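Researcher: Next entry in the queue.
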Amino acid sequence: MVKNEKALQILLEKFKNREIDKYYTATVYGILPKKQARLEAYLFKDSKKSLVYISDIPKKGYQKIITSYKVINEDKKNNTSILDIKLETGRTHQIRAHLAHIGFPIIGDGKYGINAVNKKFHQKYQMLTSYKLKFNFSSDSGFLEYLDKKEISINKI
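Model: Structure for this entry, 157 residues:
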């Protein structure tokens, strides 16, 4: 929550200009073959259906997305992986749809996940958590300048 309209405007501009790095953890179904990767694809937002679609090739109306991940834990017995994710672009449902697109849906995701998997793990809510913001301002940030080069984080798994 922001304290005033001016702070909100500055922060929204910083997110838009990618001056704030966003980090997440997610538990996905499957063991990823690459333990670290930078995924690039294209996303189309269907506002009427409240869904997004991912394509590996550029298409009209699709925007480029970049999602980087690193595997931080694997559970081969349960066929799950915990990922540390950095968004290089921040689009609606990007992480959820991108991971599902490559075959590793987030457990508990009712929209892009697999219902049978969600039931198996008794998860009604997606196992996706934002845990860190890093401020890297390259333009004027007014009275929020004190945030530049700072990190805000919660304890990660």
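Model: Residues 26 and 116 are 18 Å apart (CA to CA).
Researcher: Noted, moving on.
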